[in-house]
Amino acid sequence: MQNKDNLALQLADRSQSPLLDTDQAAALLNTSVRFLKGTRAKDAKIQGPPFCRLSSRLIRYRLSDLQAWIEDRLKSSAAED
């Protein structure tokens, strides 16, 4: 129970935003891992959420960045595209 309480506090405090791996980020965004990997390419048509490259094979996404990325893409109608 203690770990769940700590995680809840971290989620509430954006300065301590937890790091998610690509699978977790894709699940949160309800999209595929392939989509996220594609948006990380320099020549990607769609710019994905910011990510941290901790090593050549270790990519992480901050929860707060994913939430901000979603907020930036909210539309009130299809005419806004």
What does this structure look like?
Helices cover 44% and strands 14% of the residues. The protein has 81 residues and is α+β, with helices and mostly antiparallel strands. It has one domain (17-75). The protein has a three-stranded antiparallel beta sheet. A hairpin with a 2-residue loop joins β2 (52-55) and β3 (58-62). The longest helix has 11 residues, at 2-12. It is globular and about 40 Å long.
- Identify low-pLDDT runs: none
Shape summary: globular
Largest sheet: 3 strands, antiparallel
Secondary-structure class: alpha+beta
Any chance you could write out the topology, listing elements then pairs?
Elements: H1 2-12, E1 19-20, H2 22-29, H3 33-39, E2 52-55, E3 58-62, H4 63-72
Antiparallel strand pairs: 1-3, 2-3
Helix pairs in contact: 2-3
Short description:
The chain is an alpha+beta fold. Helix content is 44%, strand content 14%. It has four helices and three strands.
Key terms for this structure?
81 residues; alpha+beta; three-stranded antiparallel beta sheet; 3 strands; 44% helix; globular
